[in-house]
Design brief:
Number of strands: 13
Largest sheet: 8 strands, parallel
Structural class: alpha/beta
Strand content: 15-25%
Helix content: 25-40%
Radius of gyration: 19 Å
Distance between the termini: 33 Å
């Protein structure tokens, strides 16, 4: 039995899919049973509880062979990242009282750094907080999600894909969420290990390459357009970040554009993704048509 957090999201869902495909039993901590009803129909055991409820997490951990933990996405975190700190404290409390035979935590490229991270700060805090757990733990430092470009299926009909990557031809680490789920499932259900592991996941890809692959799916020429720095706040607001609260997102992309979100951090393992941006776009387009 393996515990999955965030099963109704992309990464948690992909992890559950891969575990079920391996014939493994899956348990999920959920806040909304109705939202997770389709998983229950497929045999996933649902445990009611919140990320901030250590007692619920302890119940969900009881008897598992491994646990996948992640932080909920907070587009406008508090300056002190108290939202993330609350969830991290819950994980530390519950995993200390009910240690899992192994733990896999979703992190991010750049989480090894201590400043200038923006939204990735939450994941750096998580790594710092969970690294001393009694269980063997693997931190999966994933690259930027190809799925974050899916807005391009709608906005790129004119031939332009607005991006925050500048310059657009500079490569940074990117990955499909399906590949994250596959790697997490492998870590959970594969050979045991001891101590701490850090796995970098993804391949070096540029926004220009993503735009070109989007164009192949749309059957038109698509070019990446780097949104001017002065327009970032307004652009993030259009993506749903509250007005006046875009600083963490802006700082994150400044970090990416600084060029240090690259593979090869000392002491890490590396796993390349198998799905391209083209695959992600094509899958999403097919799903929309069905």
């Amino acid at each position: 039995m393996f515990l999955i957090t965030g099963i109704t999201g992309r990464v948690g869902g992909a992890t559950a899919e891969h575990l079920l495909a391996r014939g493994k039993n899956v348990r999920a901590l959920v806040r909304d049973r109705d939202k997770a009803a389709s998983w229950a129909d497929r045999g996933v055991e649902l445990v009611d509880g919140d990320w901030n409820d250590p007692a619920a997490i302890e119940r969900a951990l009881n008897g598992v062979d491994g646990a996948f933990v992640m932080l909920p996405t907070v587009l406008a975190p508090s300056p002190d990242y108290r939202e993330a700190k609350g969830v991290i404290a819950s994980y530390i409390s519950s995993l200390t009282k009910v240690p899992a035979p192994r733990v896999v935590a979703l992190s991010s490229m750049g989480a090894n750094r201590t400043s200038g991270l923006g939204m990735i700060t939450a994941l750096a805090l998580m790594e710092q907080g969970l690294r001393d757990l009694p269980s063997p733990i693997a931190f999966v430092r994933a690259g930027g999600f190809f799925e974050n470009f899916l807005y391009g299926l709608h906005v790129a009909q004119s031939g332009t894909l607005p991006v925050f990557y500048n310059p657009a031809n500079q490569k940074s680490t990117m990955v499909a969420t399906n590949d994250i789920g596959a790697e997490v499932a492998t870590l959970l259900a594969g050979p045991a290990w001891s101590g701490q592991r850090v796995v970098e996941l993804g391949s070096m890809v540029s926004a220009d390459q993503v735009a070109a692959q989007l164009g192949e799916v749309l059957n038109r020429d698509v070019k990446a357009f780097a949104v001017p720095r002065a327009g970032w706040a307004e652009a993030f607001e259009q993506f749903g970040v509250p007005k006046g609260s875009t600083g963490a997102a802006e700082e994150m992309y400044e970090a990416v554009n600084a060029g240090w979100m690259a593979l090869g951090v000392e002491g890490t393992e590396h796993v390349a993704g198998t799905m391209s941006a083209r695959d992600v776009f094509a899958t999403a387009q097919q799903a929309a048509r069905s």
